[in-house]
Amino acid sequence: MRTLFVIGIGAGSPQHLTLEAVAALQQVDAVLAFDKGDVKEDLLALRRTILAAHAPDVPLITMADPPRDRRPKEYVGEVKRWLTERSELLERTIVANIPEDGAAAILVWGDPSLYDSTLRILAAMRTEVRIKVIPGITAIQALTAAHAIPLNRIGSEITITTARQFPDTYNKDNCVVMLDGGAAWLTCTDPNAYIWWGAYLGMPYQEIRAGFIKDIGHELSALKQELRARHGWIMDIYLVRIQEDASSSSLRRTSEAGGFVA
Hints:
GO terms for molecular function: precorrin-6A synthase (deacetylating) activity. 31% of the residues lie in helices and 22% in strands.
């Protein structure tokens, strides 16, 4: 039976890889990756960098990612259709390139358990494959580390949601927002809402900001548009808390991975 390692590779830094992940990489016949095109070449380039550093003899086999409607009339149905196409493509690639007693790996941005479709795709495959999951550093951890803050207040809950759900959840303590294609924080009208935001976390051109949404929300939205135009893509994440007292409402920023300046 073939073995497929699903390896979390962290939020963007090659140094996010765990020792367990490195050991798994060094025993596979190939690494498989969906190619999202020239606009997101950085995502594929990171995988090549990881292989060059830890498993230089392991080939990278790419698959053209099936197209997806980003503004569908029926969101859930479109996502299911897209995942089915990806599952069928991945299954054909595994059968064609990996021997029956061999092993392959898929490198997953962040951690396979958090807002990632890889495990759902594998569950839909008809070919029997042994799945082994190697956890990775999440974008949430990378965000709080970059800002040097704890994720939660003492004894408080943590909410992890998407931009679609943010307008209904921002008033909850420690609201982490992922998959925001726009600037959903602008829907938050509470004057005490404070945001810690980060994009390209762990990468050389990492950017972070922090401040009250009423003060920096529109500037942050403009920055996000500028960064998307500059790089051709953007992945960002943010934490929102309702708090009446903050050490600063000014923007904090960095263009270097791993820290900020006030």
